[in-house]
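Researcher: Let's continue the batch. This sequence belongs to IS200/IS605 family transposase, and it's 141 residues. Same format as the previous ones, please.
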Amino acid sequence: MDTKQEIRTGRHCVFMIHAHLVFVTKFRGRIFNAEHLDSLEALFRRVCADFETELVEFNGETDHVHLLVNYPPKVALSKLVNSLKGVSSRRMKLLHPELAKPAYLKNALWSPSYFAGSVGGAPISVVRQYIEGQNRPNKSP
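Model: Same format as before. Here are the structure tokens for IS200/IS605 family transposase:
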């Protein structure tokens, strides 16, 4: 991707801020299949749009997800993460009731912690390749 295309403008700023986020399921439970990950991606894209943030890349495995987001300086990353995790947890249980069943989850889909790394040292293309290389599970029969 051309750097010129990645530079965004706001009312009083020009920016290119990317963060690599990783969310882990509660107790690292292996609960996601490809259908769940597709739903999560759609939910994350909607939340990002509400924050004027772009979900550049998304992928995951059975127990965690990776997001690459491009966000404006006015967005507090912790607030974005809180909304991404909260909305996805609530909506996923409605869309996929089987995710609400495990008693050990105690109404929480995600672990309370998360990883957030600024992406600037490594080229975005390298981070995108890494996320694309995650082993997406097969859809359930």
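Researcher: Any comment?
Model: The domain at 3-132 is CATH 3.30.70.1290 (Alpha-Beta Plaits).
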